[in-house]
Write a structure and sequence with these properties.
The chain is mainly beta and 413 residues long. The chain contains two helices and 20 strands.
């Protein structure tokens, strides 16, 4: 037995010596000089870019959604398929005067059917966000400061909650949750019009939309007050003595109010939200993309403009979010909108009134961190009809109602 042990130990020693000699001939791996370090100063998910003091966070989202629409002629396509991906980068630096931030997000969407109102598949690649923030300034492309965003609905409610524009804004923080913002915003996406009488018309971009906002954030919730001034310009077949087309301008405006009230006494994370607004000549700030987008109508006399009539409207919307468990929540929401335009035809006076209400229910389950799946049911009732005079556009004299059912899965990372 002793001889066997000696033999085994001797063999092991020889093997170790041979291995050590062979390993000595292998190249030595160089140690990494720069390491990716966690940057906790700006929140979770940030890392220092090697060799700099810039903190970077890379993220994104993948969304799959399916829609079924059941109604009358308001919707010709009853089903729709929708896929969307976001890729975003958030870069921040601590400077002597505060945090310098640059944020960019690319959005890619492929959808068909009810989402595009066509029997085809459409692909869109958009720059959803691209802005710089420093010293209270926000410059670039981001969500309008007018918007109120405490809602949870996927389908459309009648208020502006996700309008992305190019802007230049300054926000002053007073402390104790109170801040004020003045924003100069690109009006092109909200600059809509229609004479409905077949005259030549066009828009001109002279001044930005001016948005003023007051925000209050406290433990009990938030308050949001907003006002906007929006210039409407139009020309018809009218020239001055030098032969130049005459533009006619009329300023429109809108005011808005939003509130969120936390009701943690019922369940942690529960809250109520409310949004309301009134507009004269700036309806897209109230109704966003709703198909009733003109801001004005014209009074004419033998193809000559005599005056501009600004459209008026108002809306109110609200909802409640209840958490049954930390991973299961239900939202109930609705909106009502009314537009009271005066429409004039050269030979046929006509007066329309647009009314609409929407009510919806949504259930969402979050079984894993960053992942949600759920469904939403939305009912829409529209009353868009002629109430006085003769109708120059019969297709607008219609009542309608429809149901929308959506299934959605979202993964954020």
């Amino acid at each position: 037995m002793t001889k066997l042990k000696a033999l085994l130990c001797g063999s092991a020693a020889c093997f170790a010596a041979a291995f050590s000699a062979e390993a000595a001939d292998l190249p030595v791996k160089a140690k990494s000089v720069d390491y990716v370090k966690v940057c906790s100063a700006h929140g979770e998910g940030f890392y220092y870019i090697p060799g700099s003091d810039t903190c970077l966070k890379i993220g994104g989202e993948v969304r799959a959604e399916y829609a079924f629409v059941d109604g009358n002629a308001l919707d010709d396509y009853q089903i729709g398929f929708h896929s969307r991906a976001y890729v975003e980068a958030d870069a921040r630096n601590a400077t002597e005067y505060g945090t310098l931030r640059a944020f960019a997000r690319l959005q890619i969407t492929v959808q068909s059917g009810a989402y595009v109102d066509a029997y085809s598949e459409e692909t869109e690649i958009e720059l959803d966000r691209a802005f710089i923030q420093y010293l209270g300034l926000t410059a670039g492309r981001t969500q309008s400061f007018w918007d109120f965003t405490e809602n949870t609905n996927w389908g459309t409610l009648r208020f502006s909650d996700g309008h992305v524009v190019n802007l230049l804004a300054y926000t002053h923080t007073f402390g104790d949750g109170f801040s004020a913002t003045l924003s100069l915003e690109d009006p092109t996406s909200r600059h809509s019009f229609d004479t409905w009488i077949g005259l030549d018309h066009d828009d001109r971009l002279d001044v930005p939309d001016v948005v003023a906002v007051l925000d209050l954030e406290r433990e009990w919730g938030t308050l949001h007050l907003a006002a906007v001034a929006h210039e409407n310009q139009q020309f018809v077949l009218e020239w001055d003595r030098t032969g130049n087309m005459i533009y006619h301008s009329e300023w429109g405006w809108a005011i808005g109010f939003g509130a969120r009230v936390n009701v943690d006494a019922v369940a942690e994370g529960d809250y109520l939200w409310l949004n309301a607004g009134y507009s004269r000549g700036a309806l897209p700030y109230l109704l966003d993309d709703n198909g009733i987008r003109p801001n004005l109508f014209v009074h004419t006399d033998t193809n000559r403009l005599t005056s501009i009539e600004l459209m008026k409207g108002w809306q109110v919307s609200g909802g409640i979010v209840h958490n049954w468990t930390p991973t299961l929540k239900t939202s109930l929401f609705g909106s009502y909108a009314e537009v009271d335009p005066f429409m004039f035809h050269p030979t046929i006076p006509a007066f329309y009134k647009y009314r609409e209400y929407r009510v919806g229910l949504q259930n969402v389950w979050a079984p894993a961190d960053g992942f949600e799946m759920g469904f939403e049911v939305l009912y829409v009732d529209i009353d868009n009809r002629l109430i006085a005079g003769m109708n120059p556009r019969p297709e607008n004299d219609a009542d309608g109602n429809l149901w929308e059912v959506r299934l959605r899965m979202v993964r954020q990372y």
